[in-house]
Amino acid sequence: MSKPAPDLLALAAHWGVEPGYHDIDGRWHDASADALVAVLSALGAPLARPADAAGALRAFDAAQTGQPVDPVGVAWCGRGGGIAVRADAALRDRGAARAEIACEDGSARACELPLAQAGDG
């Protein structure tokens, strides 16, 4: 079985889908392209076959444009998960952006996000 194409692997990474698994003996097994397509399609990615990956990847990237942060971030047991900030050059030139974080307990916290090192959005 050949390894899935780079566009399909990139799309899987964007959707949080692992490209394979470790078996009980610790050996890595790549997922087939068809398996990745099935999982991504079930998650809502617009593809029906491996050849659709490039278009689905462009659609994913376009949907992220103008959305500086993901709508949900998760922290387990008090350990913070990172929040990736995407910003184009014009937004980065502002230096920082204000954000409000709504917590599970109903409280909210305001903060400033430095944009100097934010990735392109």
Q: How big is the Rg?
A: 18 Å
* Sequence of strands across the biggest β-sheet: 1-2
What structural category do the secondary elements indicate? alpha+beta
Order of helices and strands: HEEHHHEE
- Percentage of β-strand residues: 15-25%
Distance between the termini: 35 Å
Coarse morphology: globular
Low-confidence stretches: none
Counting structural domains, the number is: 2
> Number of helical segments?
4
Mean pLDDT: 84
Helical fraction equals 25-40%
Number of strands: 4
Largest sheet composition: 2 strands, antiparallel
Per-chain topology:
Blueprint lengths: L5 H9 L5 E3 L5 E3 L2 H11 L9 H12 L24 H4 L3 E7 L5 E7 L7
Antiparallel strand pairs: 1-2, 3-4
Helix pairs in contact: 1-2, 1-3
List its traits.
121 residues; two-stranded antiparallel ribbon; 4 helices; 2 domains; single chain; alpha+beta
Describe it for me?
With 121 residues, this protein is an alpha+beta fold. The protein has 2 domains: 6-64, no CATH class; 67-121, no CATH class. Helices cover 30% and strands 17% of the residues. It has a two-stranded antiparallel sheet with strand order 1-2. A two-stranded antiparallel ribbon has the order 3-4. The protein is globular.
